[in-house]
Amino acid sequence: MDTYDVVVVGGGPAGEVVADRTVRSGLTTVVVEAEAVGGECSYRACVPSKALLRPGAARAEARSVEGARQAVTAALDPVHVLARRDRFTGRGDDTGQADWLGGAGIALVRGHGRLAGERRVEVTEADGGVRTLRARRAVVVCTGTEPALPPVEGIDRIGVWTNRQATTVDAVPGRLVVIGGGVVACEMATAWRSLGSSVTLLVRDQALLSDWEPCAGEEVTRGLNDLGVTVRFGVSAVRVARDDATRTVTVDTDDGTTLVCDEVLAAVGRRPRTADLGLDSVGVPAGDWLPVDDTCRVTAVEGDWLYAVGDVNRRAPLTHMAKYQARACAAAIAERAAGRPAVTGDRQPWSAEADRFAVPQAVFTRPEVASVGLTERAAREAALAVRVVEYRIDDVAGAALHADGYRGLAKLVVDEGRGVVVGCTLTGPMATELIHTATVAVVGEVPLERLWHAVPAFPTVSEVWLRLLEAYGL
Question: What is the biggest distance separating any 2 CA atoms in the chain, rounded to whole angstroms?
Fold first, then answer.
């Protein structure tokens, strides 16, 4: 039996950060990984999807400025776009990230890890051998999620795409049907349409990004339509089948129509990767999400030894928030290892409290949309004294200089009781870069009267903050 202070199950972004921070705290740590070190984000999600999206965005930005527009006349070159993506992902080769673990003093065991009782993890290695790891201080589950498939007849028999195929394939499909209306659906519809696919989006709801402010979904819908994507609201696929001879797929919908395409992408959500994790050995049902407290300690298990970080705990399923949780979790483990209680609250470094009120999100569609904190609806449901301030980013001088025909909206949600910003949504070019200013304002609970003295440079798009505060009445 190999003994370490900390055993981390899962070597994605969350697991890497937990391991790095615990080792820096003087705790011996091992990472168990069944696939590639770096996880879904590095090879089949965040990184390749943004690599696919950026060339189309760059071309659109150039064409949005008179003078540059005339110089950019050709369509995207898919061969070079896909090659650039592969440079970022290494086509799944994790040598660099595995070497980084070793350089950081973190042990790596390759294989499938399962809990085998308190503080024990059994690892089934590639040759079938089983290795047992024991944790003196903590076991941290960082296994993430996997794609969920919709209840569509035949969906498991056509070679359906999930995010994994949508971000890694080597050819542009002529016709693509996307099932879903969330972030993955919208981004992948944007990317593949930019590369030449004919894309149809089937959205069960009546809006895209239905958990966001309505303006975000409306702007993304407009952008997809401008790109030539067909967006059908209130429509669900009920049956799919692939022709063995032609390899085409037919998609029957609940409104009686039939679509013919080359590939189908299912982007309807995620489920936790906990079905084969040995949770039953510690009294937790297999296949469930793992609820945690603000230190990421699993609340269903007694003692301060089992933690769950990242998407698997469902608090804020985003890579940057997984890394944030990992930093908090590692600090809590180190604090408890030193015999101190790691009490949550009061903005301690081991408390992942921002998950509840300040989660930034960025969607790299055209236009981009980004948000942080509460929507207007959520703020009202929380019984806050809500005031909403909106301003067209188009009317800022920096926006007009940035792009001819710039179009964007900024919306602030203000808690009048405290005089602070509790939510912000931005749409338009550079929205994903602008959102961090709002994140700082929300996390810092900066009074609006104080925020007034944060003067944006002229002429930048950030001057929208001055206009929002003027609209508020300052």
Answer: 68
What average pLDDT score do residues 100-105 get? 97
Contact 156, 177 (CB under 8 A): no
- Do the beta carbons of residue 363 and residue 219 sit within 8 Å? no
Q: Which of 369, 452, 381 is nearest to 413 (CA)?
A: 381
Give the whole-angstrom CA distance, residue 164 versus residue 44.
5
Side chain identity at residue 99, one-letter code: D
Per the confidence metrics, is the pTM higher than 0.70? yes
Structure tokens at 330: 């590692």
The full 3-state SS of the chain, as one line of letters, equals CEEEEEEEECCCHHHHHHHHHHHHCCCCEEEEECCCCCHHHHHHCHHHHHHHHHHHHHHHHHHCCCCCHHHCCCCCCHHHHHHHHHHHHHHHCCHHHHHHHHHCCCEEEECEEEECCCCEEEEECCCCCEEEEEEEEEEEECCCEEECCCCCECHHHCCCECHHHHCCCCCCCCEEEEECCCHHHHHHHHHHHHCCCEEEEEECCCCCCCCCCHHHHHHHHHHHHHHCCEEEECCCEEEEEECCCCCCEEEEECCCCEEEECEEEECCCEEECCCCCCHHHHCCCCCCCCCECCCCEECCCCCCCEEECCHHHCCCCCHHHHHHHHHHHHHHHHHHHCCCCCCCCCCCCCCCHHHHCCCCEEECCCCCEEEEECCHHHHHHCCCCEEEEEEEHHHCHHHHHHCCCCCCEEEEEEECCCCEEEEEEEECCCHHHHHHHHHHHHHHCCEHHHHCCCCCCCCCHHHHHHHHHHHHCC
Phi, psi of 47 (to 5 degrees): -70, -55
Residue 455 CB neighbours (<10 A)? 10
- C-alpha 13/C-alpha 323 separation (Å) is 6
Condensed to tens digits (0 to 9), the pLDDT of residues 69-87 reads 999 999 999 999 999 999 9
pLDDT, tens digit (0-9, with 9 covering 90-100), for 402-416: 999 999 999 999 999
Q: Which two tokens stand for residue 155?
A: 């969906």
Q: Work out the number of other CB atoms within 10 angstroms of the CB of residue 96.
A: 11
Q: What's the gap between Cα 75 and its chain centre? A: 29
Residue appearing with tokens 């999807």: 49
